[in-house]
Known about the structure:
Blueprint: E1 5-8, H1 15-21, E2 25-29, E3 37-42, E4 50-56, H2 58-73, E5 82-87, E6 91-97, E7 102-103, H3 104-110, H4 115-130, H5 143-155, H6 173-182, E8 190-193, E9 202-205, E10 208-212, E11 219-222, H7 224-234, H8 239-249, H9 256-267
Helix pairs in contact: 4-8, 6-9, 7-8, 7-9
Amino acid sequence: MEKREQPCAAPAAPANISATLDGYRWARDTVGESGGAVYRLHGKAGAPDLYLKCGEGPIADEIANEMVRLRWLAGRLPAPSVEGFVQDRNAAWLLMSAMWGQAAWQLMDAQPALRPTVVDALAAFLRRLHAIPVDSCPFTSDHAHRLRAARVRIDAGLVDEDDFDEEREGWSAEQVWDAMQVLLPLDPDAVVTHGDYSLDNLFVLDAAVCGVIDAGRVGIADRYQDLAIMWNCLGEFGADCQQRFLASYGIDAVDQRKLAFHLMLDELF
Length: 269
């Protein structure tokens, strides 16, 4: 199994949360690509596991966005609870409860026989998320909003072109941008989306999704924002998993234009 975290020393943290962190062992996540740092805190007698996400500059603002969205999700979907939050002029620290269960990627990788069950659970949970009333959500994550953010990232040289999917290997960020423009305009089917609905962000217990993490992009957008990312993740486990996911969600005829657009848009983040 791919190693997805490594033991590490505790980083510096603000005084008003550092006391909570005493006595834990630390491991740093090696999977996330947000630009911040994510740590798992574990092994403290009589205390629950926690996660700490921290970062500086623009990453600090993204962490603050996640904190606000986690508090909004409480009572709507199972997600980490906010156990502490500090933001100063240049950095932010978000302390969260750990999720039960096992990350969907880990479970599918370790137990191939469970893949159909996990795929069905991922689809069922996404239907539940997308059923949240749009008028209850104060956050916008539609493609117009994300295109503006993508343009800023391209101009600032922040896009990792070496990490593009195989279909776009060797492309520049500008080529991805230009290819997306050909697919516009899109007719959005607006729902409340997660924004990064990937196998590492969903936790499974007893054949059901028991929680979701990395909620910083939660907001109203076209449903293919989530469908495309999960479809792409499931490609690692074969086309049968991809097709089963879409069918279990309720997609009879795939909108290839939207699928392609959102896959390219995700390359820029």
